């Protein structure tokens, strides 16, 4: 598929949050009066992950302690300062537990959901092994290239790996890996939220994703019978290789749901 990106002005900004003291770097595009699409990235990427998706959505949508709870708190404060009361949320990888926590804390704010385990007791030997295997350039590149026959822009995984080399990043990422176990305790609440809210949900998922397998996408239908699941001929970073198709699915989905 050939897709020509329209020229869309977007800005990179920094915002200091007075409550959590977090310094947020974000990308913003679109009209201030348009509905909001919140794009939450995953490991080990940054907002750079959505650099090609933003121009597709921007003409219609306004883009605005290392634990999932802490990150959700930062995002809630971020949204409050920007006076964002209603939004659709695109969740991916690390962004999934953060986005679902946003829904639990303020379910009326979420107009729709879109998405694309550690069992040790924080053993130092396990942390060392994970650091060597999961935070390497080879592992970062594999996440982008596994499951896809398409070309992957090398700057994507090169940038992610460069950011992982910053001082303190190894311990930060390992802390977030460890914190993933807290999500299991919240699963009953996540399921109850879906059953109660019946929030419109679109799952655009890589059919060949070896990290989050397709069965995870189909499972949404247990609580949300009307959930729309699209399995793409892609791997984990489907948004990197199948940007145009995912963008078209999102625009159609939100339009049909009046968002």
UniProtKB/TrEMBL annotation:
Q: Which GO terms describe its molecular function?
A: epoxide hydrolase activity
Annotated AB hydrolase-1 domain ranges read 150-242
Enumerate the UniProt keywords alphabetically.
Hydrolase
Q: Please give the Pfam families that the UniProt record associates with this protein.
A: Abhydrolase_1 (PF00561)
Name of the featured protein: AB hydrolase-1 domain-containing protein
Originating species:
Aspergillus calidoustus
**What taxonomic lineage is listed for the species of origin?**
Eukaryota, Fungi, Dikarya, Ascomycota, Pezizomycotina
């Amino acid at each position: 598929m050939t897709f020509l990106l329209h020229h869309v002005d977007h800005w990179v900004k920094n915002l200091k949050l007075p409550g959590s003291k977090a310094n947020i770097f974000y990308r913003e595009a679109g009209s201030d009066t348009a509905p909001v699409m919140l794009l939450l990235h995953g490991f080990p990427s940054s907002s750079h992950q959505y650099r090609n998706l933003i121009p597709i959505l921007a003409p219609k949508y306004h883009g605005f302690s290392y634990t999932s709870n802490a990150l959700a708190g930062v995002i809630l404060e971020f949204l409050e300062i920007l006076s964002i009361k209603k939004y659709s949320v695109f969740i991916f990888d690390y962004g999934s537990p953060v986005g679902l926590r946003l829904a639990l804390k303020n379910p009326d704010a979420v107009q729709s959901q879109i998405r694309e385990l550690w069992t040790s007791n924080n053993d130092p030997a396990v942390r060392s092994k994970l650091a060597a295997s999961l935070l390497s350039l080879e592992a970062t590149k594999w996440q982008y290239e596994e499951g896809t026959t398409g070309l992957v822009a090398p700057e994507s995984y090169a940038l992610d790996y460069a950011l992982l080399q910053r001082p303190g990043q190894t311990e930060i990422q390992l802390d977030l890996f460890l914190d993933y176990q807290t999500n299991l305790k919240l699963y009953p609440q996540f399921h109850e939220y879906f059953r109660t809210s019946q929030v419109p949900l679109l799952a655009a998922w890589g059919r060949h994703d070896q990290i989050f397998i397709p069965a995870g996408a189909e499972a949404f239908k247990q609580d949300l019978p009307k959930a729309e699941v699209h399995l793409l001929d892609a791997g984990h970073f489907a948004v990197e290789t199948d940007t145009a198709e995912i963008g078209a699915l999102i625009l159609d989905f939100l339009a049909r749901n009046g968002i």
